[in-house]
Amino acid sequence: xxxxxxxxxxxxxxKKWRGIRIMYLVLFLNSTGFSILLPSMWxxxxxxxxxxxxxxxxxxxxxxxxxxxxxSPLAGKWSTVRGKVTLPLQMVMFIGVLGNLIYALACLxxxxxxxxALWCVVVGRVLSGAGxxxxxxxxxxxxxxxxxxxxxxxxxxxSMAQSVGFILGPGLSLxxxxxxxxxxxxxxxxxxxxxxxxxxxxxxxxxxxIVAIWFDEDVGPADLVVNSMVEQSEIATLRVKWTGxxxxxxxxxxxxxxxxxxxxLNTPIIQAELGLSQSQAVKWSxxxxxxxxxxxxxxxxxxxxxxxxxxxxxxxxxxYTLSALAYVFFYPFGPGYIPKTEWTPxxxxxxxxxxxxxxxxxxxxxxxxxxxxxxxxxxxxGANAVxxxxxxxxxxxxxSRISKILALxxxxxxxxx
Length: 417
Known about the structure:
about 425 residues; globular; two-stranded antiparallel ribbon; 14 helices; mainly alpha
């Protein structure tokens, strides 16, 4: 290989790794924007309509997943048809910006119709979930441009980038919780409930600018050849690997369901079980999620070496078994019962157009609040610790396996055509 060819391939590698690192940033900022909203979402719904129940919280939480479910395969298909990811990536992120703005501006409607304000939040969550289609694009990009030897490390680092975002998000939510009701411009609120959404908008726009300026996905024939070499033995096993794709997707569904339930219900559980007000629940939930996310981040770092030492399949079995046990540990055994519901004055109120109160403890409209035993705080921490050890362990190993399968199939198609 002469000097000119060597320089050409070096430039290809440089662009490839710059693109990989930009996708790390996409994953990091997306997870930060996602996790910053979770501690305050339930109190925000109560702020919009004090009569809201836990069932509607489930609707608002599920709306995000519905948007992501629809947008991810469409964005993936679009990027496959185009052969490039920049435009689909920018479009789904723009949709995410709209979703977070709608979520934050729902407060404008609470004086007109609290129910309408709640459904505005749901619409915002759907669009925000659609914006999370960038995760699928980023991961598929990592799987496409890397070799088999590189892929496990790249996927692991991408998962760690998300983990850092999950750590930073609740920490930022903790800072915004100190604002309490913040300030208002007319009926437009900038409070502990809406500022997280505006910060999420800022993060997504930052992503869009970075992708527009520095992401270069121009692919020459040479790097297609470099990254598309597949041994004949690998081609011979492709027929049976589609079963693995289906199994891995089912396991991914279980993992994300487990994690989303934990993150969504953390604040209402703390508020109900400890008898906290909305502001207190946001603050302590943010502290707790930040602390446990640090623990989760350490597990992300251990997942790859554990998979290599004991085998990915065995460690995935351990991870999913621990996840199931964690939810058993969440069952409340007492002692005592959930604290009674109270109404407490809202502290540091700067919003002048209404006299506000905060809901404290378990919602008065839920009959089970008066008969349910209290969840011991140490039991709650232990169950979370087990779950936040098992979740990242399962995710890293699962993403590693499925990216190897899908990228192998993709590279064979590129090589053939």
